[in-house]
Structure of Isocitrate lyase/phosphoenolpyruvate mutase family protein:
Amino acid sequence: MQMSERRAGVVLRFAALHAEGIFVLANAWNAGSARMLERLGARAIGTTSAGLAWGLAREDGAGQVLRVEALENARQIMAATTLPVSADLENGYGPDPRDCADTIRAAMAMGLAGGSIEDGTGLGDGSVYPFQHALERIHACVEVIRAARSPFILTARAEGLLADGRNLEAVTARLAAFARAGADVVRRIEDIAMVAGAVGRPLSVLVEAGRPGVELDALERAEVRRVSLGRGLFDVGIEAAEQAARQALAAGVFGYGGDCIGVADTMRRA
């Protein structure tokens, strides 16, 4: 598998970030938001499946976005930034380990620095794949990466806490198994220090919007190496747009965003 020398350097830079200490993976939903985040000092960009799905008027996490659509969104984001880009690849766009392998192969071929595969079924009901099947899916991804002999950061996501917050022990065991299978980063856990010690891999933590008590220094002390903003930035933007639209359409008030920088100015400064 061949990639340009510049893109190979970007991919290696993403891998190095996980060894240098904690960093924030800023999630973009399109090319314009990626360029804005680079201007604001982001060191790496993640995509957001929710931002993409909502932009297409579809439901996130319910199998309504196709692999080709997600990869095209990632391609546009890559073209807009010089930063490493890691894609939210949902559940690999299919239940079979071969589906996951095909997704990772396509992601690597286009020069993505990394990607995440989750153990959620994508049925929209919060269900996850049985343990052994989920592990086989990660094994299939790792085999593709090792066979390609090209750098790629694979993030293995365990979604069990989303459906059942009491499921910490089972999720920890699953993440540890993903790490043993060869995943580079593990994600989605709340009892952070315990899990970091159990999995022996860089830990990525999703920090949702509206969590002001979460501090980067505390996460770093708990052995976290990557903080993902997930859909947070997109959600904040959508909420602000909804409030502004309600004022304009229902109340005839047009004073929204008075102190905000304009889009045109943002793009000029990028």
